[in-house]
Amino acid sequence: MTYTDYATGAPVSDSKAPSGPVEERWDKRRFEAKLVNPANRRKHTVIVVGTGLAGGSAGATLAEQGYHVVQFCYQDSPRRAHSIAAQGGINAAKNYRNDGDSVHRLFYDTVKGGDFRARESNVHRLAQISVEIIDQCVAQGVPFAREYGGLLDTRSFGGVQVSRTFYARGQTGQQLLLGAYQALSRQIAAGNVEMHPRTEMLDLIVVDGRARGIVARDLITGRIDTHFADAVVLASGGYGNVFYLSTNAMNSNATAVWRAHRRGAYFANPCFTQIHPTCIPRTGDHQSKLTLMSESLRNDGRIWVPKAQGDTRPPSQIPEDERDYYLERIYPSFGNLVPRDIASRAAKNVCDEGRGVGPGGQGVYLDFADAIERMGRAAVEARYGNLFDMYHRITDEDPYEVPMRIYPAVHYTMGGLWVDYDLQTTVPGLFAIGEANFSDHGANRLGASALMQGLADGYFVLPATINDYLARNPHQEAVTAEHPAVQEVLAETEDRINLLLAVDGDRTPDSFHRELGELMWEFCGMARTDSGLRKALERIPQIRDEFWRRIKVPGTGEEFNQSLEKANRIVDYLELAELMCLDALHRTESCGGHFREESQTPDGEAARRDEEFAYAAAWEFSGTGEAPVLHKEDLVFEYVHPTQRSYA
Amino acid sequence: MKLTLRVWRQKNAGAEGAMSTYEVDDISPDMSFLEMLDVLNEQLILSGEEPVAFDHDCREGICGACSLVINGDAHGPERTTTCQLHMRSFRDGDTIDIEPWRASAFPVIKDLVVDRSAFDRIIQAGGYVTAPTGSAPEAHATPVPKADADFAFEHAECIGCGACVAACPNGAAMLFTSAKVNHLNVLPQGAPERETRVLDMVAQMDAEGFGGCTLAGECATACPKGIPLVSITGMNKEWLRATRKAGKR
Amino acid sequence: MARTVWDSSVGKKTVMAVSGVIMLLYLVAHVIGNLKIFFGAGEFNHYAHWLRTVGEPFMHYEWTLWLVRIVLVAAVVAHATSAYQLSRRDIKARPSKYVHKKPRASYATRTMRWGGIILGLFIVWHILDLTTGTVHSGGFQEGHPYQNVVDTFSTWYGNVVYIVAMLALGLHIRHGFWSAAQTLGVGSRTRDRALKTVADVLALLLTAGFIAVPVGVMTGVVS
C-alpha cells in the first residue's frame, strides 16, 4: 500500500463542545467541568512543553492555581520563545473606538477570515476571552501604546474594518511574552514551577492509554531523562520550519507535536500553512531564515510591480502609468489590505508572469512615496520607524528613498494536533495549546489573532478545562522509569540518537533540511497541484532514505551538540512533510492558505468546495512512510454561513 | 569575500579554551554574521571537525539569544544584534576575532555559548507585577500618561541578551536590571511592589556575582536596543528611595 | 538600613558618592584658601591661623578644625574602603579578559582606580609635608605656612608630585562628580549636559587653582 492510499476511519467529533447558543457555550462548559479541590492541586503535576505565549501563560496560571508545574524549553531562557518576534498586535473586541466592533463581529471576522474551516464554538470563545486578555496584560504592566489621554490606542489590522488591534510599537509579541515570562518567573521563584531551560522534549510517554510524561534531552549535558506527570501540555509552536526558510526561529521545531502524533494524537489540517505576504525577499543560497515586515505596513504602503515583463529599470524611473498597483486594481474595496493568503498569491502570480522585481524577480514593491507625501516623513517615521530601520539594516536600501521589496514567506501553521473544545488531543491527558494545536484559525489566520489565541489558550481556556481531566482522573497510579512502557520509549529515543551519530555519512543536517524545504516550497507552498504534490510525495521518502544513509553528525550525544539537535529535528520534518503533502493532495479544494490550482473560479480566485470539504482532516499515524488514517470532523456553521469570500 | 576567523573554542565548561584560526571564502556581503558562521560550520562538519557552537534563534534581532564579542565589541561594530549584523560591515581579507561574553556570572558552556540564567534569577527576584490570571481590573480603569507608557516601553524593549554585561569592564548587570526596574516602577500597575522590586532585584544581581557600576557607559553603547545609561541613574534613585522607606518602617 | 546599604553594590556606590561630595566641598574651600597665598605671607598666615579659631568662642581653639579633620578622615576611609571592596567585586566579576582588546571608555573613567590610589598616597605625603612637617624639605616652621609652601615648591620633586596629583585629581573629579550624581539618582536625560559641564568646570577650576600655587612659586610670583 502506498502512502497516498489512505483509509478513512471513523469520524472524530468534538465531544466536549456544549450545545446551545454559541454565546453561552463557554460558560456552560466551565460550569459542567469538574473542579479539583484547591488543597489537592498541589498533588497534581502538569508538564508544560514550551514557554511562548501559550506555554508561558499556561505554566504561570496553572501554578497560580496551585498545580505543580514542570516546564521545558529548548532555549536558554523561557523569555526567548519565538512568540517574542510577533510584531503587529493583538486583537480584542473591546470596542474602545466605538466603531461597531463586538465579540460577535470578531467571531464573525475570524470564522470568515479562516475561510470557514474553523469551529464556531472555539472561535466564539476566543472572541469572548480576547477582552479579558487585554485586561490581564495591562495589569501585568505590558506597555501597550497609549493615547495622550492615557487610554489604550488601537489600530486596524490585516483586512478588517474596525480598529481592534492593541499594540506596543512593532514589538507586541515581545511585550506580551515578557508579561507571561514575568508571571512565570514569579511562580518559578515561588517554587511552583520547576523550570528546565535548554531541555528538549524528544518523545511522549503514554501509559495505559494516557499521557503520563515525556522523554527529554538536557541540551548541555546530553543526558536523556524521563519526566512524569498527571497531564502533559504541548505548547511547542508551529511547524513552519519544515520549509527550511520561514519566519520562524531557527530552532523552532515540530518534534514535540510529531512525536505526540506518533504516539496516537491525531494531526489535523497539516496542509494549512500561512504564507505571509510582507517578508524581505531572500538574497541568495546562504539565506538561513526570512524576516517578516509587519503587515501594518500595508495600511499605508502601496504594492506594485511594473506593467511590463522583465522591466529592470530602477523603480524611480518607472513612470506612474507603467506601474501596476495590482491589489488596488483587482480588489478595489480592500485594495492593499486584502487578507494574507490573497495578497501572497497575488504577489506570486505577478512574479510568475515575469513582472517581479529585485534579484531573481522574486519580489514586489511596497512603496511609501505617497504616504510620505501625504503624511510627511515624520509621521511615517513615527508609525513605522523601527520597521524601516530593520529593512534598511538587512537590505542596505533606504525605504524612505527606494520602495521596499517584499515577497511572501512561510509564517504560521494553522494545522496542528487535533484537540477538542477542552484543547485535549486524542491521547487522554495530552493537551495542545497555541500554534501547536489546530483549533481556531481554520484555513487562514487573520493578522493579530495568533497572540490572542496563544494567550486565550494559556491564560484562560486550558487552566479551566484541564481541571476537568484531572478531577476525573484523581488517583493515577504513579509511573516510574522502570515501567516497561517508559523503558520502551526511552530505548527508542536513545536508539534514534545513537543511529544519527553512527551513520557518519557525507552530508550535513542543513543540506537535507534545505533540500526538503525547497521541495516543500515548490510543491506544497503557495499554489499546489495534484501532480506537484505527487512528485513531492515520491521524493520525500527518497530524501528520508538518503538521510539515514548519508547524514553526518559530528561529536557525541553526551555533550552540547547543536548538529545532533538539528539532525534529530529533521528526522521528524521528513515525516511531517509527507503528511502535509498528503493532506494537501486529498483536499482538492482551495481554502484559505491552501490553494489548489485545480480549484479556482474563472477569475482565478480560490474556490472552496463546502459540500465535500467542510471538515477538519484529522490524521492518525500508522507508521513511518505508511498511509495514515483519515478521520473527519464535520464542521457545522449555525451562525456564520459559508459564503465565498469576496474582497473585490 | 575571503575572511580569516579567530574563534574561541572551548570543549565544555570545565575545559581550557583557546582561539583557533579558520579561513572562510565566498562570503557574500548580504550574509548576516551568523550565516557566515553557518558557512564555516558546514565546512567544519564536512572536514570531520566539530562545528562552532553559538547561541542563536530568531535571527531577527528580538529573541536575545545571539551573543558574540566580535573584534572586541559585543554584537560587533554596528549597534544591533549579531544576527542583524551583515558582512557588508567588514572588508575582504579582514581578520575577525570572535569570543564569547566574558563575565564570571556568565560561565562558558561551550565555545561561544554562555549560561545567562543569572538574568532569569534577577527577574524572578522581583521583575514582575503580581497579577494572577483573572484578577485584572478593566484595562481602562487606570489611565497611564502617554509619557509614562512610552518610558516604560523604552525600557521594556530590553531583549536580555547580556551585551551590557559583556561590554562592561566590571561585568555588571546594572543596565539589564535597571531596564526592568524602570519599566515596571513607572507604571501604576507596578507601584505597589515598587520598593521591594528594586531592593530584591539589586540584591539578586549582587548575589549572582555581577560587578558594580562605575558608569563607564560601555553597556549603553553596546546595547542593541538603545537602553540609555541614565536608566541606571533611575534605578539608583529608586533604590535610594526604597532604602529610605524601608528604613522608616 | 546601614547593613542594607553596605551590603549592596549600589549602597557602596552611594557611600562613595556621598563621601566624594564631602571631600569635593572641602576641596573647594581648600582651593579658595590656597589662593590667598598670592596676597602675601601676612594674609595667608593669618588665614591659616583663623582656621584654628573658627567657631570661637563657642568652640575651643582648633575644635572646629579637628571636627573637619575627623569628618574628612571618615570620608576618606569610607571612600577608599568602598572603592577597594567594589574594585575587588568588579575584578572578580570579569576574571578573563578579551583576547581582542579595544580602548574603552574615557580616560577619566579608566583612570579612576589608579587615580584614586595616587591621590591617596598624595594625601599622606601632603599631610606629612605641610601639616606635620615630617617629610618637609626645608626647616618646617609651625605657624608659618607661607614659608613652608614656598619651601616645598622650591624642590623639583615637590612640584612634580603635587602637579601630577592635581592632574589626577582633575580627572578623578571629572568622572567622579558626574558619576556621583548618577549614583545619587539626580542625573536625568535633560540634566546630563549640565552635569557634565559642571563636572568639567569643577575639575578644571580646582586643578588650575591648586596648580597655580607651585606655578606661582616656580615663577617667583610667590617667594
Automatic annotation (TrEMBL), chain A:
Residues 513-647 form the Fumarate reductase/succinate dehydrogenase flavoprotein-like C-terminal domain. The keyword Lipid metabolism does not apply. Pfam families: FAD_binding_2 (PF00890), Succ_DH_flav_C (PF02910). Residues 46-451 form the FAD-dependent oxidoreductase 2 FAD-binding domain. It comes from the Bacteria. Keywords: Flavoprotein, Oxidoreductase. Residues 1-24 are annotated as: Disordered. SUPFAM superfamilies: FAD/NAD(P)-binding domain (SSF51905), Succinate dehydrogenase/fumarate reductase flavoprotein C-terminal domain (SSF46977), Succinate dehydrogenase/fumarate reductase flavoprotein, catalytic domain (SSF56425). The keyword Translocase does not apply. NCBIfam families: PRK07573.1, sdhA_Bsu. This is Fumarate reductase/succinate dehydrogenase flavoprotein subunit. It comes from Streptomyces musisoli. The lineage of its organism: Bacteria, Bacillati, Actinomycetota, Actinomycetes, Kitasatosporales.
Automatic annotation (TrEMBL), chain B:
InterPro entries: 2Fe-2S_ferredoxin-like_sf, 2Fe-2S_ferredoxin-type, 2Fe2S_fd_BS, 4Fe4S_Fe-S-bd, 4Fe4S_Fe_S_CS, Beta-grasp_dom_sf, Helical_ferredxn, SDH/FRD_Iron-Sulfur. Its cofactor is [2Fe-2S] cluster; [3Fe-4S] cluster. Keywords: Iron, Iron-sulfur, Metal-binding. It comes from the Bacteria. The keyword NADP does not apply. Residues 1-102 form the 2Fe-2S ferredoxin-type domain. The keyword Zinc-finger does not apply. Residues 149-178 form the 4Fe-4S ferredoxin-type domain. Belongs to the succinate dehydrogenase/fumarate reductase iron-sulfur protein family. This is Succinate dehydrogenase/fumarate reductase iron-sulfur subunit. It comes from Streptomyces musisoli.
From TrEMBL, chain C:
Coiled coil: none annotated. Signal peptide: none annotated. The chain crosses the membrane at residues 21-41, 66-86, 107-128, 156-177, 198-222. InterPro entries: Cytochrome_b-558 (IPR011138), SQR/QFR_C/D (IPR034804). Keywords: Membrane, Transmembrane, Transmembrane helix. This is Succinate dehydrogenase.
